[in-house]
Amino acid sequence: MTEWVVLDIEGTLSATDQVLVTLYDYARPRLGPWIDEHGDDPAVAEAVAQIRELSGVDGGTDELVRVLHGWMDADQKVTPLKTLQGLIWQRGYAEGDLVAEFFPDVVPALREWHAEGVDLAVFSSGSVAGQVAFFRHTTDGDLTSLFQHHFDTVNAGPKREAASYLKIASVLGSDDITFYSDVPAELDAAAEAGWRTVGVRRPGEPYGDADFGPHRTVEAL
């Protein structure tokens, strides 16, 4: 048994389409209004400053939104985009517009690990705020109590770099960690950091036919 299980979300716990279709479609028309209505929110102000810095755009909200939509179309894991999406999704879940759904094997596995004393954490490119909202409002109820930590590209770093996994291990205070992901490059980075790794091969998902190399693979948790 491992001390910690760290889990990816998209393609591992939940269908990629739920993020790239359902959640993206929900956020897309709300980005501009959110920027305009929450300009005094420090997180939004910082995100706007980061968008300008990364894109070189000097114009108003419409130009910022065009940049954000371009990043979304390319499925780029850009921090200010993830911040704004997370805030929008957080409200969407709270208001009942959004409900998180998982692959059928996921919630039983999470509950079994938790009952056995395994500590659970999440490492996703989606913001921590978005992650917490996701697990709070699910078809199986509020699952936030199952998790000890949430990590994203802001508080940990890029998912394909070993340094991010070393940083997470430092926070968790453990070197007995198993990482589950559907992306071989993420598993490679985790293994380089000394973690155990498990590739989750979901039929029909983007990485369902990927080459997982040396990583142990499963089709269900």
Automatic annotation (TrEMBL):
Name of the protein in question: Enolase-phosphatase E1
Cofactor section: Mg(2+)
Signal peptide, first to last residue: none
Known pathway: Amino-acid biosynthesis; L-methionine biosynthesis via salvage pathway; L-methionine from S-methyl-5-thio-alpha-D-ribose 1-phosphate: step 4/6; Amino-acid biosynthesis; L-methionine biosynthesis via salvage pathway; L-methionine from S-methyl-5-thio-alpha-D-ribose 1-phosphate: step 3/6
Single Gene Ontology MF annotation: acireductone synthase activity
The protein's role, per its UniProt record: Bifunctional enzyme that catalyzes the enolization of 2,3-diketo-5-methylthiopentyl-1-phosphate (DK-MTP-1-P) into the intermediate 2-hydroxy-3-keto-5-methylthiopentenyl-1-phosphate (HK-MTPenyl-1-P), which is then dephosphorylated to form the acireductone 1,2-dihydroxy-3-keto-5-methylthiopentene (DHK-MTPene).
Enzyme class: hydrolase
Reactions it catalyzes: 5-methylsulfanyl-2,3-dioxopentyl phosphate + H2O = 1,2-dihydroxy-5-(methylsulfanyl)pent-1-en-3-one + phosphate
InterPro entries associated with the record: Enolase-ppase_E1, HAD-like_sf, HAD_sf
Family according to the record: Belongs to the HAD-like hydrolase superfamily. MasA/MtnC family.
Oligomer and partners: Monomer.
Keyword terms of this UniProt record: Amino-acid biosynthesis, Hydrolase, Magnesium, Metal-binding, Methionine biosynthesis
PANTHER family membership: ENOLASE-PHOSPHATASE E1
Entries under Pfam families matching the protein: Hydrolase
Cofactor binding, note field: Binds 1 Mg(2+) ion per subunit.
EC number: 3.1.3.77
Lineage top rank: taxon: Bacteria
